[in-house]
Amino acid sequence: MRQIQIHTLSICFTTLLLMTACEAKVGGACQYINGAEQATVSHVDKNYVMLSNEHNQFETAHNLFSSSPIKGQKYTVHYQHISKGSCTPILIESVRLETMP
Questions:
Q1: Secondary structure letter of residue 19 according to DSSP
Q2: What's the rounded Cα separation, in Å, for the pair 76 and 66?
Q3: Among the listed residues 74, 69, 71, the one whose alpha carbon sits nearest the alpha carbon of residue 99
Q4: What pLDDT is recorded for position 29?
Q5: Concatenated DSSP letters for 28-82?
Q6: CB neighbours of 72 closer than 8 A, spacing ≥ 6?
Q7: How far apart are the C-alpha atoms of 84 and 32, rounded to whole Å?
Q8: pTM to 2 decimals?
């Protein structure tokens, strides 16, 4: 009887250990660096706006724009990009329409 109890406890402990070890490690302490780039509106539809330049593409929601964006308009995209951790790779903070000098 005692041997069955020890065996049952061993199985429970092993199962608990495996469940803990297999848990996905996502998130945690992430660090970001601020950035800003000029980008041109390359696509607009009802769900999102795509801004792009020679280095990056930024997909963002309409609510970041003060007025309806038009394909071809130039904006400055202010963002944070991840430098440490496994959180969201890029966080777009704001977009500002470039004005003509």
A1: H
A2: 13
A3: 74
A4: 86
A5: EEEEEEEEEEEEEEEEE-SS-EEEE-SS-EEEE-GGG-SS---TT-EEEEEEEEE
A6: 40, 41
A7: 7
A8: 0.68
Q: Which two tokens stand for residue 3?
A: 């041997």
CA distance 83 to 32: 5
Are the beta carbons of 38 and 53 closer than 8 angstroms?
yes
Of 12-16, 55-59, 79-83, give the lowest mean pLDDT range.
12-16
d(CA 68, CA 49): 10
Confirm if 62 and 95 have CB atoms less than 8 A apart.
no
Main-chain dihedrals φ then ψ at residue 97, nearest 5 degrees = -65, 130
Segment 25-50, tens digit of pLDDT? 455 689 999 999 999 999 999 999 99
- Token output for 92: 């777009």
List pLDDT tens digits, range 64-82: 999 999 999 999 999 999 9
